[in-house]
User: What shape does this take?
Amino acid sequence: MGKILKRKIAKILEDYYANDPGKILLVDGARQTGKSFIIRQTASQRFRNYIEVNLFEDRLGAGIFAGVDTVEKFNIAVSLAAGNIGDATKENTIVFLDEIQEYPQLLPLLKFINQEGRYRYIGSGSALGVELARTSSIPMGSIDVVRLHPLDFEEYLWANGVGEDVISYLRKCFYGDMAVNENIHMTIMRHFRMYLAVGGLPEAVAMHVDGASITQIRTVHAQIRGFYGADCAKYDSEHRLQIMRIYSMLPSFMEQRKKRVVYKKIDPRSARSDRYADEFDYLIASGVALGVQAVTNPVFPLDASVTKNLIKLYLNDVGLLSSVLFGPNLKAIMDDAKSINLGSLYETAVAMELSAHGHTLFYYDNRSKGEVDFLLNDYDTLSILPVEVKSGRDYQIHSSLTNMLNDGQCASRAVVLSNSHKYSRRDGVAYMPVYNVMFIGGVHEYRS
Assistant: This one.
């Protein structure tokens, strides 16, 4: 990877290094999202003694950490792995435990490693979320967990040389209810369309910035989808075949009108939602899919209104989806052709952005009133923000959203994201460019 990509998580890491919170930081996320690279880059610059232990390689090779179940054994294993590190102290030394989930017994041990305080520690793992979810003795008071997603759209703009002055201008238009200059809008929309093709996985973005062809980038996408499929195959024998099948079917679900998971398509003999709960949990916890749960009668907070038997699963990266749907045909994505429906790509990009911003995702599914793409909790105003995504020219037609707002009990205002550069407000709905998803916060920003 030629270009060093600027990532927002770097600020979280640098704050962790500078201000000892008394906890060990673990960076979670799917494989190929850049966890090891960004930790290595920031930690090695901050600490005089930087020790990196790849536990996946250790498990395949020397197995130094295989029998580690005490702090004393852990310290000996670190010394064996690191060699002589001289005047190492907590202030000048950090130990990076990469792929820590490869030795699950280390996770409960982190509490005691942290209490001893010999060095500073940081960890990461590609299936860490899965291991944390199924390990009952995780010392939550001794660790902090942060998830690294693929590059969001703002990070993608940074990588492609879009300056902060341009992004500040877009932000000013967003907060000031102003239309974006049409030429600037066209430029940002070209970036957005290319983002749909390239996605946010660091290797693909770096290749694009370095001038690689879409065919070369698609090769990387295929490899990464293969990695994710292989990771699915590592799960226990009872569930792994179904996990692999569901993962392979996600693009086809996205091409349906309703886009939700159809259980009878997974297995006609077992069409019950609870049959696949473990599989869905794995795909979401591992970070390879973004889960969006259905809400029929929403009240704040939305978690209390979830409909257990309906769920949408988006691929974690829009580039992987466009690779499956359009292959190397860049023209299909970049040209504004009426015959090409980019709705699933737009929705996936919005789901990525909202997830990267920390939103838990829900959608509205009501048999009589229809479906709305996303519902968000807004904790500032203790209310709900519906978000509808439109890839075509008829962005002001949204009967389900209108029905929801007319109800008067679910929500009083909403956002519609579209291709238009104009801002407008009508009947509680704020219409704005799709790339403004990078600024979405709470409903107080969308007063009617």
About this structure: The chain is about 40% helix and 20% strand.
